[in-house]
Amino acid sequence: MEPFRTQILQLTLLWMSAVSSSEPTSLDGVVNQNVLLQCPCLYSDLSDFSWKRNDETIFSLILPETVNIRLGFKNRLHYFLNDKGNCSVLLSDIAVADIGKYQCYMGYKKTVDYGEYIQINVTANYNVSFKCDTDEKQVYQCKASGGYPQSNIQWRLDGQPLTSTMEVHKDNTTQLYYLTSKLLLNETKGEKLECVVGNIIESCMLESPNPTSSTQIAVAAGVSVSVGMMLLFGILFGLFIFTTRYRRQEKPMDFVFSRKQRDKERRDSETAVSLKADEDV
Ligand SMILES: *[C@@H]1O[C@H](CO)[C@@H](O)[C@H](O)[C@H]1NC(C)=O
Ligand SMILES: *[C@@H]1O[C@H](CO)[C@@H](O)[C@H](O)[C@H]1NC(C)=O
Ligand SMILES: *[C@@H]1O[C@H](CO)[C@@H](O)[C@H](O)[C@H]1NC(C)=O
Ligand SMILES: *[C@@H]1O[C@H](CO)[C@@H](O)[C@H](O)[C@H]1NC(C)=O
Ligand SMILES: *[C@@H]1O[C@H](CO)[C@@H](O)[C@H](O)[C@H]1NC(C)=O
């Protein structure tokens, strides 16, 4: 009676794990972050539990406290076994190499049990750097660094896709991708240039072929010319006042005549100056 029941239980468990293995739960991990691999268990009956990745044991604990952690998971795997029964493990500092199918195993005093398969998928966000200034001859460069899985760099000019080539480098250790794309644009008219990597879009406005900067220069030149003219007139006017005063002091004899004469001269030149100033404004 007793062995028969155990057999049925074991068969049921096998069937359950077979069913669950056909549709593994997916967990999305992000590089450098953590994932919690859930596995409830019955603490009162438990004698040991372990975790496998792709059918290779990465962690095992034999009660009360014999722990084995596979190289590469040391310091990254934490367990929470307590009297409520929690065979979950937290895997921290996720890397691309952690992609795989995970499963927990529970050794009870009279039987064994398996948790459902958990598929860990890993992604890493690309760091996109893109500048609108060209160093070489009208070549624009967009870089997408440290991402996973492999992606593409696409260019758009005012929303229209452009064709370009892309260099792909894969880091052997981290398995992360580094993409570089260069685009040659020999004519720009102030369009919007976009570098698109997945859902990341970096954009900038291209320079139009210089009409803005040349008018700016013309305006600036005009301003400096009129300032120069005003200064010149100011200096001339000052000189004129100075010389008339000086002459007045030097020749007191011709006082009456020359005063009249000079007053007229002064009025003439003053109107001339103000006329010129008006023209300048
Ligand atoms: C196990 O413990 C972790 C950490 O406290 C918790 O987040 C998780 O929900 C627990 N899982 C179960 C099945 O109790
Ligand atoms: C996880 O990766 C597998 C295999 O690459 C894929 O079939 C599955 O759709 C992915 N799941 C998620 C949620 O991204
Ligand atoms: C992304 O790239 C920029 C420029 O190269 C760099 O300053 C920054 O640190 C990078 N960020 C990450 C998260 O790698
Ligand atoms: C990285 O992998 C490539 C292709 O497998 C190989 O040619 C190259 O030598 C490797 N580099 C290093 C540093 O291991
Ligand atoms: C820009 O480059 C294309 C392709 O190389 C060429 O056909 C075109 O004449 C170039 N235009 C100018 C203004 O250089």
UniProtKB/TrEMBL annotation:
GO terms for cellular component: plasma membrane. It comes from the Eukaryota. Residues 260-281 have a biased composition (Basic and acidic residues). Residues 142-218 form the Ig-like domain. It holds the Pfam family C2-set_2. Keywords: Cell membrane, Disulfide bond, Glycoprotein, Immunoglobulin domain, Membrane, Receptor, Signal, Transmembrane, Transmembrane helix. It is a single-pass type I membrane protein. Residues 1-22 form the signal peptide. The keyword Cell membrane applies. Residues 259-281 are annotated as: Disordered. It is found in: Cell membrane. The chain crosses the membrane at residues 217-242. This is Ig-like domain-containing protein. The lineage of its organism: Eukaryota, Metazoa, Chordata, Craniata, Vertebrata.
